[in-house]
Amino acid sequence: MTTDFSRRRFLGAAGAAGAAVAAGAGTVAAAAPGQASTPSGKKLKIVAISCSPHKDSSTAKILQVCLEAAKQTGPNVETELIELAGKKMNGLVAAGIELEPGQRDDFPALVPKLADPAVGGILIGTPVYFGNMTSLCKEFLERCMAFRKDKFALRNKVAGVLALGAARNGGQELTIQSIQAALFCQQLIVVGQAPPSSHPGAAIWNDKSNKAGVTGNEQNVKDAKALGERVAQVAAALAGAGK
Fold this sequence. Notes:
alpha/beta
């Protein structure tokens, strides 16, 4: 996926899900609703990052629903779930504070995964703690300063945000907006859900009384699928517009 294309080509790519559009010397094939169209044989990867401090968390489970929906949008779409649980992000490094000798740092291993040209979409998911993202999520976003310094290495990749709260209205939307603000600073293309909902992100309710878990809530599943679908659709359109 190219990181340098004109405004005209970007606007054309945005409509690729509905009809063929101009893309330099070639064209992007028309895509049916809910489908992502990519150049024949070109791999498109969507990566989801779970910012819960718990392994195999509800956040990771609902992000997997996003990824499954993304994968269904096209035959060339691949997905990967990355859990930050158990990892050390050391956000202070972004402020120029050096780590002590032997101090663990797991962020560098994520850099090639996210900067990979095949990665067209990134999903960020976090539980809501005291009305906002987890400290692990905040540290991760701060460490993404490395991508800004590297000529905005994440520029023009597509991003979507999911927040999971213990209450129906437990701060999910504020958390989504907070993460989106950080993503805009990376020159990522931030999107919301696919129609018909078209909400800014996926606000998930982790209802503890539901024995089926977070994925047992029908609305949660709909919202997660709509987010994953939209990220994949736009990423595919932009990949088709690239060289």
